[in-house]
Amino acid sequence: MSIFLAKFKQYVLPLAILLGFLLHGVCASLGGLVPVLIFCILLLTFVAVDIHHLRPTLFDWGLIFYQVAVGLAVYFAITLLGGSKIIAEGVMMGMLTPVAASSTVVACMLGADRERVTTFALVGNSSMAVVLPVIFTLLGDHPELSLGNSYLLMLAKIGSVLALPFFIALMLQTWFPKANAALARRTSWSYYIWAVALLLTLGQTIHYILESGRGHWHEIIWLSALSLVVCAFQFWFGRKYGRRFGDVIGGAQMMGQKNSAMGIWMINTFLYSPLSAVFMAFYSVWQNLWNALQIAMKERGKLNVN
What we know:
- The chain is mostly helical.
- It has 14 helices and no strands.
- It has a single domain (2-299), classed as Na+/H+ antiporter like fold.
């Protein structure tokens, strides 16, 4: 069975993408299962590393600084040059959106350092939960949302996903090491759980694009094209950044792989136009097509990790 799964692994992600396109309506109705699947993925990720050894480093703070500085710079550049606010918000959120909590699955599979990417998944999401409410309040698109309310919404959204599996893993490692070791031996399951989560998330994404795009196809084309450019740039720049720390794959995945569902929710909740969220919807498609290609190249021994 394990041999079959190993051979089938390179086809799991493309199959999830295809089914997400074909069954987008069904996937949209089952979206409530995604947080449960992400919880399982993160728990399997956390039990496989020594949580006591997870410490933020320059790698983490550099990525966070990039997200905030470049995201805001691009937003103000576009608006000051008279560009569409819809475009400006979409591009900004393509950079400010936290790393996908499940990105550790693909990153580790491609050869990234497990402790490094797990640390950034925690630090990156936690830092954005602190920084983003301030940014959204300063932009002033929803004055009825106070800074305090924005913090509560962000912490509830991010904390519920990250905090529970983290503290369960910490408890297992501290008091129940045998149970922790038993779960750690099953970390390979996380890839297949993630494939199901991806199927549902992509299905929701396609459904969102089709529903939101009616009557706005000019903006949709621009958002689609720019999301491809931003996605490609962030994976490319992430490789350059990761090379400085001896982890090309870790840098690329942590900078390029975004929690698109979170990005869509933040745009709809805090920003000017829900149409900007189409940028993150397309970003999700591009990043997962790239991940599928990387996994296929890895299985064939053709992935460049230098």
